[in-house]
Write a structure and sequence with these properties.
mainly beta, 4-stranded antiparallel beta sheet, globular
Amino acid sequence: GKFKLDPPTYCIREITRPPGVPELGSSFGIAEINNRNQVVGSLFDGNRTHAFIWDRHRGTRYLGTLPGHNTAYASDINDWGQVVGASEVWETGAIGAASFIWDERRGMRALDASFGSGHHAAAINRFGQVAGTSYLPPSDVGIGPARAYFMERDGEVFNLGTLPGGNPETIGRALNDRGQVLGVDQGPVNNQAFIWHKRRGLQPLVAPIPGTSVLPHAINNRGEVVGLIMPPNFSRPFRWTAREGFQDLGSLGGRATDGGEALDINEWGTVVGWSQTADLLGRGFVKPRGSAMLNLQELIDVTDPLAPHAIIGAAD
């Protein structure tokens, strides 16, 4: 017969700053974690931003920059420990940014994803395929329009274009092991999500309410998408599937107007993100498939030494 499983509990692992980086004036931005518990992100030290990798054995290490650059951002890491992101000159930003790939053996290397101006890598899958955003040749006022790109392991780059009748720019945000790129058709008012594949091209994820803006964050290998959908004045976390379309994931507070955002989804359909609670605070959540949304703050192991100091809130 059926039996009830107790909710999982979680311990906390501190990601420490490298020596010499003060807490005041500096900040961490966590981008991604792989199945080997390696974490990547970016650290602002008060002057520049540094891409980093962290693991429990070696702590936090900087990845460096490409030649001629002085700042870098890490966006994603696969299970082989390959990291992608962007390296740039702090003073010029995206105009001169370049996508990079980094691994332990060869360090940081440039990826040629240029459509005429700057570019940055957003995601890498287990096969070494990369997705991101590149910019068309610059105009008199700066970089040209953005275009999502997909790069094969051999370096072949595909310009994903724009949706017919859609907005003038596309942004590449995520990538799964099937080579499906998740992106945003970006406009001045509303954003529309899409999935791209070499055999099918761009497929829009049509929002359930016309005029609603959609910001997708992640896609798993089953093609399930999560993110936030924005009716007027608030946001809601969603899951999208090809069979069921958009599904509102609810909230920790239980109200239809609570804000929230789904940030990632794994192969088992478990979603993580943040939501407002009944007291209107933003708190992290985990939502296993077929289960109610659970408040991560309430699932911390009470014996964890860091538990009294933890506030699990609206973080990506």
